[in-house]
Design brief:
By secondary structure, the protein is an alpha+beta fold. Helices cover about 20% and strands about 30% of the residues. The protein has six helices and twelve strands.
């Protein structure tokens, strides 16, 4: 079990030095040929100046993790909060940069977490973009109002909603989950979402909510678990 959350990024309505775009899906603007560009091609400007920018964030690294989370909030320079959510991808395979950093001995296996990955990227900015570009998958966003919903179209509930592999579990499936290595109590969870990195019948991603506390919980979640799938009783 890992965790995901809604991050908040400082953002701007106009481009500028050290500002990084957050894009709408080109397919929605009849630019299908552009929608399959790789992360590297997009970083080189493949989508620039085509009216696809929702906003520009102040950190390329935070934009990368926004892509991993799939939704978030943009705090604009005037104080306005814009909510954005997943609106498609470039149909490239997801590659875990955490695995890359582990395999290349840049971070020890036992130390891998969202925080250690972020810290490595910030401390190695000359290499950071090349590492991030090795994950060719790129996420597009759209603005929305109201509560964030998962792929099932149900509102995500902190510490209840989970992302699962739809090959094994249908949307709306209810689970009892128990962490294997501590004395925490079992809890109920509902399959409201799915994710590119969530593969296998025993792999889940718990939605922890919005804000710094949610970020901390999601970053530290990496637990072996027992899961029980609940099924309707036949009468």
């Amino acid at each position: 079990m890992t965790g995901y959350y809604e991050p908040e990024l400082n953002a701007f309505t106009k481009t500028g030095k050290e500002r990084y775009p957050i894009y709408s899906n080109p397919e929605k603007f009849k630019m299908k040929a552009l929608s399959s560009k790789t992360r590297k091609e997009i970083n080189k400007g493949a989508l620039a100046n085509k009216g696809l920018e929702i906003a520009w964030a102040e950190s390329e690294i935070e934009v990368f993790f926004l892509h991993v989370q799939g939704s978030g909030r943009l705090k604009m320079e005037n104080g306005e909060i814009i909510k954005i959510r997943y609106a498609g991808n470039n149909n490239k395979t997801y590659t875990s940069i955490g695995k890359i950093l582990k395999d290349e001995n840049k971070i020890k296996k036992e130390n891998i977490s969202m925080y250690t990955i972020k810290n490595w990227l910030y401390e190695n900015k000359k290499e950071a973009r090349k590492i991030m570009e090795r994950n060719a998958r790129y996420i597009y966003f759209e603005k929305y109002k109201g509560n964030i919903k998962g792929s099932s179209k149900f509102v995500l509930k902190p510490n209840i909603s989970i992302a699962v592999d739809p090959k094994f579990h249908k949307p709306g499936t209810i689970f009892i989950i128990k962490e294997a290595n501590n004395k925490s109590k079992p809890f109920l969870a509902i399959a409201h979402d799915r994710g590119a990195a969530i593969k296998g019948k025993n792999r889940i991603d718990l939605f922890t909510g919005f804000g710094k506390k949610a970020e901390k919980k999601a970053a530290e979640l990496n637990s072996k678990i027992f899961i029980w799938k609940l099924k309707p009783r036949k009468i």
